[in-house]
UniProtKB/TrEMBL annotation:
Keywords: Lipoprotein, Membrane. This is LppC family lipoprotein. The keyword Protein transport does not apply. The keyword Lipoprotein applies.
Length: 395
């Protein structure tokens, strides 16, 4: 989420998933600006009753510049997924708007040049996508002179100064998920002792730390155990030691900073008696015929797009049918949908705070009157029998 983005799939072994995008610097590419049509994989229903009933406004269309690293080898697939979602939402509510794609590589210098061009040719800019590129715009002294919606978080988030007022950050964040899971678990188990079970990857340590810090802030105690892994699989000796520790300490609950296959290993050894919580990283997906009994009862948090197919906002947009679809790319498709919806709302009601039932969560936005503020609350769910059921509590 949000996404360094490492794929989170249900195929064993699962490559570790990380919440931000880190990409190598490649030679700079020329900036290209062009009108955008819906790309392959983002088929939209023919006709839009809502748009068709609206009279064509006499004022010029609002120009949205979609700034994405489509020329990057590393970031091309994530950019393509996000673009597809953005255009699916645009096709549904396009009246009064036009979208232009500004293509870049993934070097910060390339993105800064592209961003400067986008500001001159558009009324609002959506992008960039790479964390390093967002940092470049936020901290390089660039004049953020028009509304800009960043699709990732700047590096060193929470450690630096204030962001430009015209910059709204709405990237997906797995650390935010971990903090929300801590609040949810605390509401279900007041005063509980938690055992945080983490893998050794950087993203796993980050979400383990985020959960533990929030858990402590809520007045609760936790301990952390880190398990070594090889080729995505946890070591048997580490799992055995974990089982002995759980038997001895009897924690109230587990927070699992793992991927879905690793959690399956843990649950196969420990059983299901101790409640297990996790972020979207433990979501195994819901492919037909692939119910995973070891994960039954796992409590997790993810986007409505992934765990609430009957959510009203989710149902009105087409599913992404790309051949190389993964859960992480699917989440970026969903982010693209909400990015257009937020850009549209900011344009139609400048300066007015608003909330929105998005496909990435319940969104609260304040923009245009002082520092920009964005909050996303994601739904909680329980994995059971190969699908997700409402948790009955939490967010």
């Amino acid at each position: 989420m949000c996404a360094p983005i490492e794929p989170n799939t249900s195929v064993a072994p699962v490559p570790p998933r990380a919440p931000e995008i880190i990409a190598p610097v490649i030679p700079e590419a020329e900036v290209e600006t062009m009108p955008v049509d819906a790309p392959p994989g983002a088929s939209v229903p023919s006709g839009n009753p809502r748009a068709a009933d609206l009279a064509v406004d006499s004022k010029p269309a609002t120009r949205i510049g979609l700034l994405l690293p489509t020329r990057s080898d590393a970031l091309g697939p994530p950019a393509g997924a996000l673009r597809a979602g953005f255009m699916a939402a645009y096709e549904r509510d396009r009246t009064g708007f036009e979208v232009k794609l500004i293509e870049t590589g993934d070097s910060p210098q390339d993105v800064l040049a592209a961003y400067a061009t986008a500001l001159t040719e558009n009324d609002i800019v959506v992008g960039p996508l790479a964390r390093s590129a967002v940092s470049a715009i936020a901290g390089a002294g660039v004049a953020v002179s028009k509304p800009t919606i960043a699709l990732n978080h700047p590096e060193g988030r929470g450690t630096g100064g204030a962001l430009p007022h015209n910059l709204l950050v709405m990237g997906l964040s797995i650390e935010d998920e971990a903090r929300q899971v801590a609040q949810w678990a605390a509401s279900e188990h007041p005063g509980a002792r938690a055992l945080v079970v983490s893998g050794a990857n950087a993203w796993q340590r980050r979400i383990a730390n985020a959960f533990a810090a929030q858990w402590k802030q809520l007045g609760n105690e936790s301990q952390t155990v880190e398990l070594a892994a090889s080729n995505g699989y946890l070591s048997e000796s580490g799992i055995s030691q974990l089982r002995n520790r759980v038997d001895a300490e009897q924690p109230t609950l587990l927070f699992t900073a793992l991927d879905a296959d690793q959690l399956r290993q843990v649950r196969a050894s420990l059983g299901t008696s101790v409640p297990a919580y996790g972020t979207s990283s433990v979501n195994p997906g819901t492919e037909p015929g692939k119910a995973l009994a070891e994960l039954d009862g796992v409590r997790l948090l993810d986007l409505p797009w992934e765990v609430q197919p009957d959510h009203p906002a989710v149902m009105v947009y087409p599913r992404w049918n790309a051949s190389r679809r993964t859960l992480d790319l699917d989440r970026l498709y969903a982010l693209g949908i909400d990015a257009f919806r937020v850009a549209r709302e900011i344009t139609l009601h400048p300066g007015a705070p608003f909330t929105m039932d998005g496909v990435t969560g319940r969104l609260s936005v304040s923009f245009g009157d002082g520092p920009a503020r964005f909050e996303r609350v994601q739904p909680t769910a329980v994995y059971q029998g190969g699908s997700f059921k409402p948790s009955g509590g939490g967010q």
